[in-house]
Amino acid sequence: MPIFGGYAGGVEETAIVDVATHINAFVMSNASWHLDGPVHIRWGSTNTRETLTIAGWTCATISEFTNILSGNQYYPCAGPCTEMCLLELSAQSITDTASGREILSGVAAAKGVVTDKTTGMEARMMGEVARATAGMEISEVNKILDALVPLYEKNYANAPAGKTFQECYDVKTITPTDEYVQVYDGARKKLEDLGLVF
Amino acid sequence: MTFKRSFDSYEFYDRAKVGEKCTQDEWDLMRIPMKAMELKQKYGLDFKGEFIPTDKDMMENLFKAGFDMLLECGIYCTDTNRVVKYTEEEIWDALNNIRQEFTLGTGRDAVNFTRRTVGDKKKPIIQGGPTGSPISEEVFMPVHLSYALEKEVDTIVDGVMTSVRGKPPIPGSPYEILAAKTETRLIKQAAAMAGRPGMAI
After folding, report:
1. B82-136 per-position pLDDT tens digit
2. Range of the domain at A184
3. Do residue A108 and residue B8 have CB atoms under 8 angstroms apart?
4. Beta strands in chain B (DSSP E)
5. Looking at residue A36, which CATH number applies to its domain?
6. Any residues with CB less than 8 A from the CB of B121 and at least 6 apart, and which?
7. What is the rounded CA–CA span in Å between residue B14 and residue B77?
8. How far is CA B67 from the centre of its chain?
9. Contact A60 B52 (CB under 8 A)
């Protein structure tokens, strides 16, 4: 996972390293596909403006100039059952789908470091947003991202912790709570207002 | 100059024993940042705040910069503190011979992994799961079942069990192996309970 703000430096420099590591997977390991995941050194997230830009440029470039198959990992700051988490992962799903990514892999909510803070609902949103984004004009996609990312990017330091799987689901029937369904609907409505058609 | 045979992991191992010596600090703090900065300037890279690129010339410059980065720096082997270098021909040989399609999973639950392009109308594969997040032993199967039950999800990416038989899966211990095997069994069980026994993990 290339680190924005790490040894390589800024957005363009990290994207250079990201392209190099994609290619290396196929030289060194004769890989079938490469799992990417540009992550922010301060926030530990793949959904920041900078890491989305690195992922978007790298994947589009790799798709345009090679036959490499590529995936991306999801690490939002916020935890499950929060609108911020769903908006963060949606921004990445939009970026990945539009830039030609073959696999979307996630979602490790709450940065993937808190026990039991991931659920199937985040993956549902990742999939629904990917379906809605596929085939959109890139100029339109960029407009949506320009409006979507500011909705959450000021909240990294105080990102809502969210709830555990046991609090988000009836564990016996594997059914999400009414609360989570309402949060999900709210996030989906915001995405529709920004121009996504589900 | 043409190469004698295609590069592989065995050749990497051999070169990692004889390549140029380099300290990790020299690699991390000098070579990578200096080369990245040099290539950004050489190719005039400026993404101008765009999330998805619309400038094909700039994309081509990014590709050339990434290719040069790999060619000129090589790969650092932290086990031997040596640098493994590839030739330009070896890199192109790998890029020219990438499999463009394969299958993940089995039977009716299998999905075809095929190339997508920028702005592609085809939906990408959705690999749902905790992606390495820590998951309690008690809810490991139900958590993964919550993904397998989602029709948007095509394949499963697993979480990490925080304990197995109540013991932490400490690296190098027998419990580490037991945890890895138990994770796979429970995820396969979750996929089967969702009616998707052939789902790829």
Report:
1. 999 999 999 999 999 999 899 999 999 999 999 999 999 999 999 999 999 999 9
2. 3-194
3. no
4. 20-21, 75-77, 82-84, 101-104, 111-114, 125-128, 134-135, 155-156, 160-161
5. 3.20.20.460
6. A134, A135
7. 11
8. 18
9. yes
Chain position carrying tokens 């830039």: A99
Q: Report how far residue B99's alpha carbon sits from residue B97's, in angstroms, rounded to the nearest whole number.
A: 6
Nearest CB to B134; choose among A26, A109, A115? A115
CB spacing of B98 vs A69 below 8 angstroms: yes
**What residue in A sits closest to B149 (Cα-Cα)?**
A120
Say what the pLDDT of residue B100 is: 87
B-chain residues near A98 (CB < 8 A): 52, 118-119
A39 interfacial to chain B (CB closer than 8 Å): no
A194 shares contact with chain B (CB less than 8 Å): no
Measured over the CA atoms of residue B36, residue B41, residue B42 and residue B44, the dihedral's sign is: positive
Question: Do A145 and B51 count as a contact with CB atoms less than 8 A apart?
Answer: yes
Written as six digits, the tokens of A116 are 């039991």
Q: What is the complex's ipTM, to 2 decimals?
A: 0.97
- Count of domains observed in chain A: 1
């994770």: which residue's tokens? B183
The H-or-E segment that residue B68 falls in is: helix B56-73
C-alpha distances (whole Å) from B154 to each of A98, A124, B192 are 19, 11, 14
Which residue of chain B is at minimal alpha-carbon distance from A122?
B128
